[in-house]
Amino acid sequence: MDDERKVNENSKNEQLESFRVDDEGKFLTTNQGLKVSEDEFSLKAGERGPTLLEDFHFREKITHFDHERIPERVVHARGFAAHGVFELYEDMKDFTRAKFLQDTAAKTPVFVRFSTVNGARGSSDTARDARGFATKFYTEEGNYDLVGNNIPVFFIQDAIKFPDLVHSFKPEPDNDIPQASTAHDTFWDFVANNQESAHMIMWIMSDRAIPRSFRMMEGFGVHTFRLVNDQGKAHFVKFHWKPLLGVHSLIWDESHTLAGIDPDFHRNDLWHAIENGFYPEYELGVQILDEKDEFNLGFDILDATKLWPEEVVPVQIIGKMTLNRNVDNFFTETEQVAFHLGNVVPGIDFTNDPLLQGRLFSYLDTQLIRLGGPNFHEIPINRPVVPFHNNQREGYHRQTINLGKVSYHRNSLAGNTPKPASPAEGGYETYQEKVEGRKIRARSDSFNDHFSQATLFWNSMSPTEKKHIVDAFSFELSNVKSESVRQQVVDMFANVSLELTNSFAQFVGANPPTSGGSNVTQSSPALSMEHTINSPKTLTVAVIVTEGFNGPNLKYVLNRLTAEGIMPKIISEKIGVVEGTNGITLKAEYTFLTAKSVQFDSVYLVSASNDSQKFNQQAANFIDQAYAHYKPIGASAGVKNWMQTNNLAGKPGVVIEDDMVQFTNDFITAISKQRFWKRNII
Ligand code: HDE
Asked: Which residues are bridge partners to 605 per DSSP?
């Protein structure tokens, strides 16, 4: 009776294979397969005459073009995605029936789409914003979607407020300004008047909202979900993705500059990492809570503005996801992928989190308008890798050719099939949570503490992270025109920390708060990025060279850097071959016209130009900027004097060659460290 449900790592790829078309070397045809003899000139009555309506080829080509856009996502419009595989470390049978969380030999195909939330499809990658982190697992029991963000909490507690939140942060409706930015009146007006947002705002003002790379950020399911095992026993669960490269961020000045010179910064980063075989890896973690502890954490676990501190409920690492293949086509895969929280498999269930409940409605509804009808599950990227059978028929763009006459249940003509499966046969069974209550539009009192965890977050930050949060508040509020809104925000965040508000109130033209302060003294070290993994892998070095560089020395350094997984990028006077000593040559990919310091993690000055003052000045500017952004700087022996004259020698994170081996070791260590906050920068 049952269908073939074996899934392996290649299942999705094999399924997509049948939809791939390679046009190269083929004759041009219409969509009807007719070979076309002319594609540059429309059909006319005479060489200078009017175009004829009869020109079916012209009409087909233009009509298709006119319809080439679909609505962008209301939120998360700008995104980038990749294929990969999920492997389980540990059998989770005690907690869940989900087969892909039981079989440690299984390799489940996945598709992940990262996104910004606020900006339009063409906006910049590096805007200050939460990042979407949506994963579709193509499992043998159907698709499971974990639609998360890189921040573990959310702005609001009840989905009914989502349109209000989004209207407030999107560009203002009278002039459609500003793009992809929360630094404007309506957003901060929303914040001050919806104080449940306090905790999320602390994350948004922190460096988490300007990630260095999609490969270097965490992911969170945000809501409390349920895992249910074979015996029907349930546990509460929070999902985490932990990047093996650690969690790293840009700094605000960089992200601003990048928005102009490389708006595709994160796309480029992910695409090239995968193309170069540096596959991004994230471990899947779960925080599991026994049902009897539902009320023991000191806050309501149904409230999406709360996280479970890792020191209280440890994160258990259970598997790993590796992204190992770029898409073949952005539109058909990244743009058309349709995530939905309601895509679950047996053993994963929901809770009454009112934000989650609302999302269960919204995602399906959104796809109907975006993808033009109810058959979007047939689009290749959305198809499960196992067959689907039901009595749904017809609708726009239906592709399945269902056989037979019967499309209803119950029936006798088809032996009453397709038929529901019992749980033992793999049927999804909703967890039988006991629910009773009066119909009421209200929020539980247990959702009313909006500030304690915002303070917990603040207390957990390092001095550098705190400074960045203060700077972010100062920047955002300085862009708010309404004096009253600025004051309201200061007064609101006084409840989080007076240290915080006193540090920025005066800069934003507001009065320091007259009351406030918090009694919360706890911190959660896991929240600080200072304690993350530092690895040199996949970090970039801008290598500045001119003709006549010391060939053997540079070759040695570059070999060592690449052996560590570091990616050197050569910058010179012109692109193409640069000749060094001993017949050693390099290929420059960039000049100062096409490369700016903000695009690289570190810089290595190898040689200066003997005959170009301009080149030397540009190199100096490049290094100044890297220095101001606290980045590692390496210098070869040949430019030692130059480094000394420019006052760079001896500064934190500045490594100058004396001994080649020692220099290389120190430079690699500096690159792994990424930032040298001890520099005295005004
Ligand atoms: Fe979403 N969200 N969301 N969201 N969300 C959408 O669905 C919505 C929320 C998230 O790469 C939309 O297909 C409501 C939290 C991601 O395609 C829409 C609420 C979290 C993505 C929608 C939330 C998310 C979306 C727009 C409040 C983190 C991009 C396009 C209850 C856990 C998925 C679409 C992709 C996309 C609704 C809140 C994550 C409108 C109503 C909390 C990663 O349906």
From this structure: 544, 635
Same domain assignment for residues 562 and 659 = yes
Based on the fold, state whether residues 481 and 604 are members of the same structural domain: no
Q: Is 130 in the pocket of ligand 1 (CB under 6 A)?
A: no
Q: Is any ligand 1 atom within 6 A of the Cβ of residue 358? A: yes
Exposed e or buried b per residue across 215-249, where buried means at least 16 C-beta atoms within 10 angstroms of its C-beta: bbbbbbbbbbbbbbbeeeebbbbbbbbbbbbbbbb
- Does any domain span residue 156? yes
* CA terminus-to-terminus distance, the chain: 72
- In ligand 1, which atom is closest to the CA atom of 363? 44
| pLDDT tens-digit readout, 105-154 | 999 999 999 999 999 999 999 999 999 999 999 999 999 999 999 999 99
Looking at the 3D structure of the chain, how many domains does it have? 4
413-423 average pLDDT score: 97
Look up residue 300 and give its amino acid: D
| Assigned domain for 582 exists | yes
- In this structure, are 586 and 460 located in the same domain? no
Does ligand 1 lie within 6 Å of residue 132's CB atom?
yes
Task: Give the Å distance between the CA of 39 and the centre of ligand 1.
Answer: 42
Q: What is the pLDDT of residues 561-619, one digit of tens each?
A: 999 999 999 999 999 999 999 999 999 999 999 999 999 999 999 998 888 899 999 99
Q: How many CA atoms lie within 13 A of 547 on its CB side?
A: 8
Ligand 1: centre distance to CA 632 (Å)? 38
Q: Which of 110, 116, 147 to mutate to test the pocket of ligand 1 (most atoms within 8 A of CB)?
A: 147
Give nearest CA residue, ligand 1 atom 24: 148
C-beta 238 within 6 A of ligand 1: no
Q: What is the pTM of this model?
A: 0.97
Cα–ligand 1 centroid distance for 293 (angstroms) = 29
| Domain membership flag for residue 394 | no
Same domain for 89 and 193? yes
What residue owns the CA closest to ligand 1's atom 31? Answer: 159
Same domain for 318 and 214? yes
Residue among 489, 444, 509 at smallest CA distance from 194: 489
Same domain for 660 and 638: yes
